[in-house]
Design a protein that fits this description.
By secondary structure, this protein is α+β, with helices and mostly antiparallel strands. 29% of the residues lie in helices and 19% in strands.
């Protein structure tokens, strides 16, 4: 007898409805990748320090030319809303308060290799770009921040 697992695919809209209904709390570290809810690993001290260092550097370098969104969601399509370590976004007067960034808003995504989902994020974003014919930059880093 072969047991098949049934997976339920969610949309970003359903994902948000679960959060609004209290099924997912604001403190849960979950992201939606290709319709599946994926638990994110806790942010360790080393990883947090690397992200802080990158944020500091990028703000000094780019200032008001970008909106820098550290560890915030980006909506790639109707089934993927990952939370990269850093997203460099086009400036907008509402600072993305009214909606999450869409692919056309993204200059650059940066995801650390210490995240267990970073390869999935890269693959999800790359697949989306190939389907839409768009180009963008996705950077994975693995550095020792001293």
């Amino acid at each position: 007898m072969v047991l098949q697992l049934v997976r339920h695919q969610f949309t970003v809209k359903q994902f948000h409805q679960m959060a609004e209904a209290g099924i997912l709390s604001e403190n849960e570290r979950v992201e939606l990748i290709r319709g599946e809810m994926i638990d994110m690993s806790p942010i360790g001290r080393r990883h947090a320090g690397c992200v802080n260092r990158l944020v500091n550097f990028l703000i000094q370098l780019l200032g008001k030319q970008i909106v820098l969104a550290p560890q915030n969601p980006v909506e790639l399509d109707e089934t993927s809303e990952p939370q990269p370590d850093i997203a460099l976004l086009k400036p907008r007067p509402d600072f993305y308060r009214n909606s999450h960034p869409q692919p056309e808003d993204i200059f650059l995504l940066i995801a650390g290799l210490t995240q267990n989902i970073s390869q999935t994020l890269f693959s999800s974003f790359s697949s989306f770009l190939s389907l839409t014919g768009r180009s963008a930059n996705v950077v994975h880093y693995s550095v020792t921040c001293a």
